[in-house]
Amino acid sequence: MDKVRVLVVDDHEEFRHSLESLLGAMDDVEVVGRAGDGRRAAELALSLQPDVVVMDLHMPELNGVEATARIVQSSPHISVLVLTMMEDDESVFAAVRAGARGYLLKGARRQEIQRAIEAVGSGEVIFGPGIAERVMTYFRHVRARPTAQAFPELTDRERVILGKIAEGLDNAEIARDLGLSIKTVRNHASNVFAKLHVAHRAQAIVLAREAGIESGEVI
Fold first, then answer.
1. CATH top-level class of 4-137
2. What pairing do the DSSP bridges indicate for beta strands 29-35 and 79-84?
3. How far is 147 from 144, CA to CA, in rounded Å?
4. Which one, 135, 143, 145, 162, has least CB within 10 Å?
5. C-alpha radius of gyration, the chain, whole number
């Protein structure tokens, strides 16, 4: 099994070295680079093409959110895992909108960090326990807004698919609900992601819920 190639980004040198040592002790992880600011992180991500970038948010030159957006835009196959002290809603959702696939707080245990790197490296989306609860709380309390003009580029079917995704359903569950094949659902979901210019489900969910999109009737 190939090792997950990781770029470590943090402006605190001592913490960065500690994190490198922690990751270096993992059998399935290889640290291929390090950066102390967001601008350098974006440059190294482009040249090194790591599988995962472990990204702090509060950094000089270019903050972690902007660096994440640059990395995902130039190399959408690279997964960004945020590892930061910042746990406010604005930071969490800004990172997700920018394309981050994972969000952990500093102080996470070794096992949590390893699992998160493996998860985002394989294309999954993962949040630390405290962050996951904040995300779910946000979704439960977000106020629905008129959606007539939301995402006019989507077809009616794609809007229904997006609503199901916003409920947290996976492709198999959506297929069962709508009486479609998983392949058809997957194709519709890919079209939705492309039209909304998002890299993965978490970004689509945030956009949908903020726009008040909810699951509609079967069309």
1. alpha beta
2. unpaired
3. 8
4. 143
5. 18
